[in-house]
Specification:
Layout lengths: L3 H20 L3 E2 L4 H13 L4 E8 L12 E2 L5 E9 L2 E10 L2 E11 L8
Antiparallel strand pairs: 1-3, 2-4, 4-5, 5-6
Length: about 120
């Protein structure tokens, strides 16, 4: 069995990985970036254990193709989310690190108290 902290970390990683692979390649332009950000937040926010999510897309990295739109890439994502499993919460991020879309655990809090009663 896993602890609540381990489960919160696992859930954060799964959510970020799924988000990345589900949305990369989506047609996008600066004019609809806010709509896509909101759609991702709402879709991921439906999933179990998600307490909070913020999605920002870096429109400066969008390069229109011959048809006037770009495709969403991992380097455009700036995402932070918080998962909660019982008394434990995990804050994680997906953001560019150099030329790689890196997923990082930012913090882990476990509010469960340990009893020293035998």
């Amino acid at each position: 069995m896993t602890s609540d902290s381990e489960q919160a970390i696992f859930e954060a990683g799964i959510k970020l990985g799924a988000l990345y692979h589900q949305w990369v390649g989506t047609p996008i332009s600066p004019q609809i970036a806010e709509v896509i950000e909101e759609a991702i937040e709402q879709a991921v926010g439906l999933q179990p254990f998600v307490e909070e999510i913020t999605v920002r897309l870096d429109t400066r990295k969008m390069r229109p193709n011959e048809f006037g739109y770009s495709e969403l890439t991992g380097l455009m994502f700036e995402v932070e989310l918080e998962t909660r499993c019982n008394g434990a919460s995990c804050r994680a991020r997906l953001a560019p690190s150099g030329d790689y879309p890196l997923m990082t655990i930012l913090s882990l809090h476990d509010t469960q108290t340990v009893s020293d009663h035998g």
